[in-house]
User: What shape does this take?
Amino acid sequence: MVSEDYYELLGIPRGADEAAIKSAYRRLAKECHPDRHQGCREQEARFKAINEAYDVLKDPQKRAAYDRFGKAAFHNGGSGDPFGDAGFNGFSDIFSSIFGEFMDPRGAQQNAARGADLRYDLELTLEEAFTGVEKEITVNALATCGECDGRGCNGLDRCASACSTCGGMGKVRAQQGFFVVERGCPNCRGSGEVITDPCANCQGEGRALDKRTLAVKIPAGVDEGTRIRVGGEGEAGVRGAASGDLYLFVHMKRHPIYAREGTTLIADCPLSFTTAALGGSITLPGLDGHKIEIKIPAGVQSGEQLRHRGSGMTVLNGRGRGDLVARILVETPTKMSKAQKKLLEEFRATETGDECPAAKGFFSRVREKFA
Ligand SMILES: [Zn+2]
Ligand SMILES: [Zn+2]
Assistant: This one.
């Protein structure tokens, strides 16, 4: 028979905090998950009830309502399943939340001793990202203790003995409400042994804070947000357990000329109005060191994009390069000599309107409105 009371169901006192609720739920959901009890209706009902309880108790508002009114707080007219579909969304929901420890309980235990993963934010210039680069980075993190070589013992002898609290099992069982639950041993933190003569440098952990410098290779083509995993260079594990990984997060410095969209390099190029009208060419510095000449067709307009194929960014883990795009911004002169102004006025005197067809079309439509 499944208990009706949510707190009893989860085996926690009424004043339990969020963390206690969550950990109780995880333990129990794991214990009676239907995958472990093929077709057992009793376990399935219990599993469902536990999820229902957790759904209410994890939400402060629902919990407060439940504390005052009990399950009646959730009955709409008092019939049927109090939560309908909203309360329990099938197994996939739970699966995702406790996926890791669920799939491999032994893996979860090993993970407790594994070193944590580290994050390192690395800023690169566009040129560095273009060619790829080797960077020296300094990491300040828990590393294998040099005094005891990670064993945690003072001196060369083995100094671990079986933990008396859990008898070397690494787990203890405890009665919680209706259920017997198993959890990691608090004395040995799940390892099953205690260090009797700990190393003074690391207090038996087998790892201690250390500053180290390492060279990391950054491949060509990385971009803002690229993550690079350096296996085994994270925090050292407890007493020789596996190290975590180091993750480099790439950030891009601003470039004075180019913005970047994927493998495309984009340069906003202000262009004098005479060059825009008469045509010409501009030269841009390629990231590979070559000069890139871009022909400007006569009559180019603001906003036009002139593409130079294969002169853009390198492709990460791929071949070839993206394109380079010159985005034209025609610049109207703001400082002119008297002689230049005179020349322009002479030019205006010869204008028929056909020189700028867009302007001509627009203002003829305007005139129609005034007519
Ligand atoms: Zn040590
Ligand atoms: Zn123990």
Notes: Confidence is low (pLDDT under 50) at residues 76-110.
